[in-house]
Design brief:
This protein is α+β, with helices and mostly antiparallel strands. It has two domains: about 90 residues, Phosphorylase Kinase, domain 1; about 260 residues, Orthogonal Bundle (Transferase(Phosphotransferase), domain 1), CATH 1.10.510. Helix content is about 30%, strand content about 15%. It contains nine helices and 14 strands. A six-stranded antiparallel β-sheet has the order 1-2-3-4-6-5, covered by helices on one side. A hairpin with a 3-residue loop joins β2 and β3. α3 packs antiparallel against α5. It is globular.
Length: about 375
């Protein structure tokens, strides 16, 4: 694909706004309806995958299109069209006027977001997840880069590239080819072990997102992937009010409840989370604190074999440019299972257009930028 390409006689590509290991996102003009859209294209990996890997990638992209198109909620990115052009699968989505939460932290000098914004984002995300979970869909890659806040304040969940229907039990519901999928800084404990995932895994990831935008750092802010994964599995997160004393006590308790190691200890569902958040907003800021989370007995240091050698990937508060090159499990032969870095042309500031991640779950934290001349861009 290149600039000015006309896809299916309708979508004129105007400029590349981001690329990852397995995909590209373009700003485009829909010449039939005279509107700007985002076009996400599946780009064949440079590693020349075998026929099985190619089929798996194409099916994953088709699944994303089907799942995302089935969702009709103001808190989820709208999908307009899907097809194939010159052998390249493409997905047409709304082009969002705003920034993802990762970019919002960057624009604010990596300072935490104001408390009213935290409540607003938490409530809107809870409503969107209540809807998606109600339709049996588990996102599996919630992170700041996959949540966009538009210019009018609407919060939208993006990138359903590794989402799955919550059917049955067993490792297949949380893995691809036997390997867990997701972004280490935001993976639930059960996601790390490759266990069956349900909607409560998304609630844990949401807790990680809220912790980060409330404090400026994810709950386990480490460079070492092993340390991050052990943190999710074994270590109680530091109470966020130790990092930000002005955070309301009720909101801290909600975040820590979402980060419970055991799914049964988290809020029952996103609807319950929404109710608790609304009540906490109305109640103000009580001075109570939640007791530390229980550490699973006798489980220190136990992580699955796949965790060795896996890199953390970029996170929103990194004090350096994102790492280069795709992330993958050692010897897996399955590219881009864990989220890798995302690169886009230029680095602007201020309001801009945002679109979801390219396929493969790459992290677009450095790519969503103002429309032109800089680029804009959700495991």
């Amino acid at each position: 694909m290149r600039e000015s390409t006309l896809i299916q006689g309708r979508y004129r590509l105007l400029g590349l706004v981001g690329r990852g290991g397995m995909g590209q996102v373009w700003r485009a003009h829909d010449e039939s309806l005279d509107r700007e859209v985002a076009v996400k294209c599946l780009k064949p990996p440079g590693s020349r995958p075998g026929p099985r890997e190619t089929v798996a990638l194409r099916e994953r992209f088709r699944r994303e299109a089907r799942l995302a198109a089935s969702l009709q909620h103001r808190g989820v990115t709208v999908v307009h069209d899907f097809g194939e052009h010159d052998g390249v699968l493409y997905l047409v989505m709304e082009l969002l006027d705003g920034h993802d939460l990762s970019r919002l932290l960057e624009l604010g000098g990596r300072r935490p977001l104001p408390v009213p914004d935290l409540f607003d984002i938490a409530e809107q995300m809870a409503a969107a997840l209540a809807y998606t979970h109600g339709r049996g869909i588990v996102h599996r890659d919630l992170k700041p880069a996959n949540v966009v806040r538009t210019a009018d304040g609407t919060v939208k969940i993006c990138d359903f590239g590794i989402a799955r229907l919550d059917r049955g039990t067993g490792p297949a519901a949380g893995t691809a080819g036997g390997f867990p999928m997701g972004t280490p800084h935001y993976m639930s404990p059960e996601q790390i072990t490759g266990a069956h995932l349900d909607h409560r895994s998304d609630l844990y990831s949401l807790g990680c997102v809220l912790y980060e935008i409330a404090t400026g750092a994810p709950p386990f802010d480490l460079e070492d992937t092993w340390g991050v994964l052990v943190g999710h599995r074994e270590t109680a997160p530091r109470p966020p009010r130790e990092l930000r004393p002005d955070l309301p006590g009720d909101l801290e308790r909600i975040i820590l409840d979402l980060l419970a190691k055991e799914p049964d200890e988290r809020p029952g569902d996103a609807a319950e989370l929404g109710r608790r958040t609304a009540e906490a907003r109305r109640a103000g800021s009580p001075d109570g604190r939640r007791t530390p989370l229980r550490r699973p007995p006798g489980s220190a240091g136990r992580l699955p074999e796949w965790a060795y050698g896996v890199r953390t990937g970029a996170r929103a508060v990194a004090g350096r440019p994102p790492r280069s090159g795709p992330s993958a499990f050692p010897g897996a032969g399955y590219p881009g299972v864990l989220s890798g870095p995302w690169t886009g042309p230029g680095a602007g500031a201020g309001a801009g257009r945002s679109v979801p991640d390219a396929p493969g779950g790459e992290d677009p934290a450095a790519a969503r930028r103002p429309r032109s001349p800089a680029g804009a861009a959700p495991d």
